[in-house]
């Protein structure tokens, strides 16, 4: 019975071969598919389980198995792989692209014969399109991406990259590291090849990436994320970026960009994040930024922006972060600030803004967690309404010209973790509880306020850099009253006033030792 089964299997193999030769000649010529099928058949034929199964199966079951392999082979007609067909041209392109970034010593065709199938390449992803073929859609290089290849020290931007016509995501980090030994410029053309596919472009931490941002990037109509962060790029912000109406994230921080913020950026109605910090941008903030209704984060810190904060910014009802620190803004705090009902982080530090805190209804900032108004030239007092920002965690009013007392009601802010009022002209006593001082520790800063003091108590936390208050003690007996000043004894005097007709209301001034002697003499006699 077993011998007959083997003979039947041989006959079936012959039939299968003749069928493949007749009906699917091209599929038989595909070496990879045929070898895979023959190898699988041999493994099944030689396995113990198959031998046991053949004893119970009829010749009809054998025919079904042969038909399955025949069908799978026919599906591979004119294709490279039975599971993930990929055109040879697409393979050659991605191999060339990787060699441009990693180095020519990278042997992709040997290590990764099926990049979109059973031998995927690190940092490369593919998708299958309507024509049945798989194409490269994602290319990531650099240490910021998990399981991605690292660029070599002499990496280049290969022109073959722009032949990946289905590319959706391109991310290059730490690929071009030296602006002197290996400077690389972004091509001015070729970006049109990605106009119907690219959705995300990230160029991060490439100090060797020099030159300007090409205006042709504005042709990437499907782009949703443009991150050009910490590179060596110069020049102005391209006006053409306003054409990217689907853009949701625009990060241009940490470069050497100059000029003004283009007014036409107000057309980016779907923008959620706009970060152009740490550049050399100048001029005034365009009022059209108030048209970015969806904006969540606006960071223009560490530039050279001038003028006043546009009142149109008050339209940004969804804004959660506004950071315009380290610029040259003036004109005081605009009342439009209180219209930021969703604002969590407001950072305006290190600007010559001037003005005071009294014109703002701080109780409207119910969602604010961070408020940094340090070193902006503020004057006047600290309003009690600042103690009504219930979610406030960080308050910095340091290095201004504020005067008056420090609001003790700030202690009632249960979420408060840091309070900086150092470097002002604040006066009076600090009446915060010991619990408040213990909670804050060094995060409470009140030094460099000449007329500010605290009440010294045994074993209590001492606010750093603040002197103890001067205490007055009055001792009286009979017609005599002695006022002794304790605390800071430098240049201090004690004034004694004695009542009686013989002195006719005259005032006598004694030193501290003299007063004590008089007091002791009266007690003894």
From TrEMBL:
Q: InterPro entries this protein is in?
A: Leu-rich_rpt, LRR_dom_sf
Membrane topology note: Single-pass type I membrane protein
The subcellular localization recorded is:
Cell membrane; Membrane
Matching entries from Pfam families are given as: LRR_1
Keyword annotations for this protein? Cell membrane, Glycoprotein, Leucine-rich repeat, Membrane, Receptor, Repeat, Signal, Transmembrane, Transmembrane helix
- In which broad location class does this protein mainly occur, judging by the first location in its UniProt entry? membrane
Q: What parts of the sequence cross the membrane? A: 505-524
| Biological processes per GO annotation | response to other organism
Annotated GO CC locations = plasma membrane
Q: Could you tell me which Gene3D superfamilies the record lists for this protein?
A: Ribonuclease Inhibitor
PANTHER family recorded = LEUCINE-RICH REPEAT RECEPTOR-LIKE PROTEIN KINASE FAMILY PROTEIN-RELATED, PIRIFORMOSPORA INDICA-INSENSITIVE PROTEIN 2-LIKE ISOFORM X1
The protein's name is: Piriformospora indica-insensitive protein 2
- Print the organism lineage: Eukaryota, Viridiplantae, Streptophyta, Embryophyta, Tracheophyta
